[in-house]
Every structure is written in structure tokens, then in C-alpha cells.
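Q: My labmate handed me this sequence with no annotations at all. I'd like to see what the chain might look like in three dimensions before we decide whether it's worth expressing. Could you predict it?
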Amino acid sequence: MATVTLDTPPIALIIHGWNDDPARGWLGWLNAQLTERGYDVRSPHLQIGERPLLKRWNNQIGPLANELSQQSIVVAHSLGCFLTLRMLEAISLDDPVDKVILVSGFYDAPNDTASKFFAPEPDWIHIKEQARKFICIYSNDDTIVTPDRTRRLSHKLDAELMMLADKGHFLGSRGLKTLPEILEFIEE
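A: Here is what I predict for the chain of 188 residues:
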């Protein structure tokens, strides 16, 4: 695998999902793999304590977004994908980031009770200007973010859509310790 060699290492921003730990499972593994390849990995731990959650999480992610460059990549999982969409919607980069990879991503509410949290629908035109390439990854057996939701997100972003079989919701807490396929998507 290629190692990044630049004067300033490119940033890899990893945004985890609901109540997850970015240092564990495949996210922690990815952090180590990207660090080894010369990326400056940023992986904030978004905690679910105080409300309002979205505002607090955006305050954590926002300053990191302002450091992204055309060599940067963003990898997000589950609810982290929605946060990534809002982050990209809120910034205007001079040069789009290289790739945004969304694993078990979605943009819509899973039910009417949660719809207020996800409104309004993202500004797709602006978001698409912030990255050269979007990749959406889903699993055929994901029962938390069903494949149709990730397919709809892919359609909205004109993203490359990839299915990785039998990975469930890509949870490290349920045994997914590595995800070597994601390195292939990053390096393609």
C-alpha cells in the first residue's frame, strides 16, 4: 500500500456513530492504519451526555472541518455520516477534499419521532461541491440503517455505492475489528 509523502501530512477525519468509541473496533484499526500511511488522523470522541447534542457535536467537528484540504479524506459511520453532511453543508472549501466515505450512512429520520432532529433536508448541491468523490458503503444485513436508506443517500450525493456482505451495522462492539476493504476505497 502507498504511503502518503507530503510536506504537511493530509488529514483523515474519522467521525463515529451514536455512542461509539473511535479508538475501538474497525474505527480504531483504521486510525492506526491511516497513521501508519502518513495521515494526520483526527478522530474526536462525540459523547451523548448533555443536550443539545447536534449543536455540541458540530462545535467539536467544526474546527476540524476548517483544516481540511484537497488531500484530506473523511470517513464516517452511521450517525457520523449525518454529522458529516451537516459539516460539509456548513463550510465552503477552496478546494474539495479528496474523498468522503460514508459507512451505513443516511440523511433521513428513521421514524416520525426523530424527524425534527434531521430537518431540514441537507443542501445537496453545496455538499457535493466539498468533495471530489463520495463513496457510500452498506451491508445487506444491516438492520439499524437499512440498505435502502444508504442507497437513497448515495443517490442524493451521486456517490459510488458499495455493498459489503454480512457486516451488519459495521459495529466494533459486535466484533468488527478490521475493515480492510475501506483501505482499498481510500487508495483507489
